[in-house]
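Retro notes (design track)

What went well: tokenization of the new backbones is finally stable.
What didn't: we kept losing track of which sequence belonged to which structure.
Fix going forward: every design gets posted as structure first, then sequence, in one message. First example under the new rule, 111 residues:
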């Protein structure tokens, strides 16, 4: 059974940083790509970043240069380092593997 558990969200001031984690189980982690998504209030869920099994990374334009996705194939975890956060980054952040989603972690950027 695939399980994805996000953590690391919180309240941060504009310009601040957060590191999200997605701990996984139930599948062979090293063989699959995973993604980060986010959903802001009253908006549709949007793709943020992807890391494939080879470690190649891809980002939505709005976070390029500020966010970094990484993975640890020993810990079966994926991470999202978010720097220079902006109020428009406020959302619930989810990790995804195929049709499986985590429960999300809230990120709020506000002064």
């Amino acid at each position: 059974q695939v399980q994805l558990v996000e953590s690391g969200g919180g309240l941060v001031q504009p310009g601040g940083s957060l590191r999200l984690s997605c701990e996984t189980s139930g599948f062979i982690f090293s063989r699959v790509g995973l993604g980060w998504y986010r959903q802001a209030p009253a908006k549709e869920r949007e793709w943020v970043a992807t890391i494939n099994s080879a470690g190649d990374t891809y980002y939505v334009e709005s976070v390029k240069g500020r966010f970094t996705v990484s993975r640890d194939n020993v810990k079966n975890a994926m991470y999202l380092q978010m720097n220079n956060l902006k109020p428009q980054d406020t959302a619930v952040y989810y990790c995804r593997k195929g049709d499986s989603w985590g429960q999300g972690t809230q990120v709020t950027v506000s002064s």
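Added context from the reviewer: The CA atoms of residues 17 and 88 lie 14 Å apart.
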